[in-house]
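Lecture notes, unit on protein representations.

Consider one protein chain, 335 amino acids long.
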Amino acid sequence: MLKRLLAAAAASAVMATAASAETDVPFALDWKFEGPSAPYFAAIDNGHFADAGLAVEISAGQGSLDAIPKVATGAFPMGFADINSLIKFLDQNPGAPVTAVMMVYDKPPFAIIGRKSLGVSEPKDLEGRVLGAPPPDGAWAQFPAFATANDLDVDAITVEPVGFPTREPMLAEGNVAAVTGFSFSSFLNLVRLGVPEDDISTILMADNGLSLYGNAIIVNTDFAEANPEIVTGFLTAVAAGWKDAIAMPGAAIESLIERNPAADAALEERRLQLAIDANVATDFAMANGMGGIDADRMAKALEQLAETYEFQNAPDASLYFTDAYLPAADARMLK
């Protein structure tokens, strides 16, 4: 009996030492604990962060503009944010210690969501119809470049400013023919409002002329320079979490529900799957591993961003993204 007690005490001491050896890494999300955040919780529950010697605490956010300054000020060493918002932030705050280190949404979720019964199935169908758009909406911010890429007559489109809470209800009621929004969110909101799925058209801007990238893991550059192995370990774990979520989305959602018991598991699993299919597991990511970018596409993306934003300084892709901390490609493969 004494031997067993001593053995148990020794095991507990080893575990306590191992736990204390883990490095705490707070991580700031861009939004609430919903389906697309499940892979990060799966990375915790499946031991991927622990394997890298990290103890990660995830905090919900209020949008990309919330996460970026948190990381830039050092309040959080790592975060998740829209790279287009990051580009504008760095242009307005030259030298701020923040950059993107892993692309997660190879295709951004910016979309036009329409109803086929109201005549909107493709970009040109917007002409002669009413488009609902919340003024602060990220997808609406990209609309001028989308219009140029699709040769739309913007004078023939009636734009109705709407609020975020009323956007999908107005489309469901037929007060507008289409809205701007995030593909996986607006689609599911319409379904919940009773709009038949086969009546919903999701026009992803990335599939219709826009080269823009989407959300990425961002890092405080002072932290990264001092702790490169921590950043690479973190990114390795993130890729493993996404791989797990792609293979078993239901299990990833279980990890999410543990942190957000009020969430609808079935709904959030659908939201996660929509994000995987349209934004994460793209042809590029599946062939090359998640996380990297294509230099030519980024150059085109900056040109398109300049159609909707007046740069104060010459755009420089190296300021906004670095692959210096990415693990080897085989550690980032999603299948």
